[in-house]
Amino acid sequence: MSAGGYRLEEQIGFLLRRAHQRATAIFSARFAGHGLTPTQFAALAKIADEDEVSQNRLGRLTAMDPATMKGVIGRLSERGLIAGRADQEDRRRTQWRLTEAGAALLAAAQKDGFGVTAETLDPLSPRERATLLRLLEKII
Amino acid sequence: MSAGGYRLEEQIGFLLRRAHQRATAIFSARFAGHGLTPTQFAALAKIADEDEVSQNRLGRLTAMDPATMKGVIGRLSERGLIAGRADQEDRRRTQWRLTEAGAALLAAAQKDGFGVTAETLDPLSPRERATLLRLLEKII
DNA sequence: TCAAACTTGTTTGTATACGAACAATTTTTC
DNA sequence: GAAAAATTGTTCGTATACAAACAAGTTTGA
Asked: Which chain B residue is nearest to residue A129, measuring alpha carbons?
C-alpha cells in the first residue's frame, strides 16, 4: 500500500528499465541469427560510420564506459569482425576497423536493426514516436 | 557516413539505453549514502507494498528474471534488510518480508527516490513529463 | 487418479555496466 | 623545458540481465 506514497510503477527509472528490457528482448529475437548483442551491433555500426576509430572514442560514440568497451571490442575482435592496429601518432591508442566479415555481417544485419526499432515503436502512432524520441533525447 | 542509412542515435533502443544509464547515474549519486542499487530499492519498495511476497512474484512485480531476483534477494538478505520464511501452503516458495532495519532504510531512502525521479525529469515541463511516462508505458 | 503441464526456485555461463585504481603516453601550462 | 593535468587503455570487483537446463512441488485435465 505504498507506505510513503512511492509508486514504483510511476518512476521514470523503473519505466526506462522496463522499456529497455523490452527493446533488448525484441533485438535478441531478431538478431538471434546474426549472433550480435545490441552493444556489439552498435559498435559495428559506429565503426562503419567512422571508418577507423580508437577504442575510447568508440566508447563515447556508443555510450559505453572504457571497461565495457574493452569487453565488446575483445569479443568482436575474437570473432574476426573487427581488426585493430597500433596508432603511430599516439602510442596509447589502438585504431579499429571492420574486417570484410564484419562489413558483410553489418550489411546483412542492418535491415533487422530497422525491424527492431519498428517493432519496439509499433504501439505508437507516428506522431507519438517522434515525441518519444524527442523527449528521450531531452533527458539524456 | 551510415552506409545503410542506419543512424544509431535515432534508434529507440539506443536512446532507451542512454536514458536508462543517465537515470541510473542519478540514482547512484543520490543513493550512495544508502548503499542501495536501483533494483535493490525497487525490491524493498515492492516488498513493503506487498507486506509479504514470494521470490518469483517479487520478480514479476519488479521486472526481474528469477536468476536476477535470486541475486538481489541474496544481497538484501545478507545485509539483514529482508527475512524469508518457508511457505507452509506451497513448499517450493519462500515468503519475504522487510526486517525492521529494512523498513527503516526504506523510509529513510524514499525521499531520495522522489529526488531521483525529479532530477531525471528536470529537463522536461510537467506536461512533457506526463507524456513521456504515458508513451513509455505504451511500449512496455 | 495419475500423467502432463505448469510453477517455483537454483545453477551455470555469457554479456553489459561501471567504480576505482593503475600504468603509459600525450598535452597543457607556467 | 619541466611539472601538472589530461587522455588512453587495462584490471579487478560488484551488480544487473537473461538463456538454458535442472529439481522439486503443485495444479490441471482426461
From this structure: B135
A25 touches strand D (CB under 7 A): yes
Residue of A nearest to B60 (CA): A18
What does the buried/exposed string (b/e) look like for A12-38 if buried means 16 or more CB atoms within 10 Å of the residue's CB? bbbbbbbbbbbbbebbeebbeebebeb
Q: Which nucleotides of chain C does any protein CB come within 7 A of?
A: 7-13, 15-20, 23-27
Q: Which residues of chain B carry a pLDDT beneath 70? A: 1-3
Strand C proximal to A140 Cβ, under 7 A: no
Note the pTM of the prediction, 2 decimals. Answer: 0.94
Residue of B8, B18, B27 lying closest to A140 (CB–CB): B18
DSSP assignment string, A16-60: HHHHHHHHHHHHHHHHTTTT--HHHHHHHHHHHHHSSEEHHHHHH
| DSSP letter (8 states) at residue B79 | T
Domains of chain B, CATH where assigned = 8-139 (1.10.10.10)
How far, in whole angstroms, is CA B64 from its chain's centroid?
A: 9
Which residue places its CA closest to the C1' of nucleotide D26?
A: B90
Tens digit of pLDDT for each residue in A78-128?
999 999 999 999 999 999 999 999 999 999 999 999 999 999 999 999 999
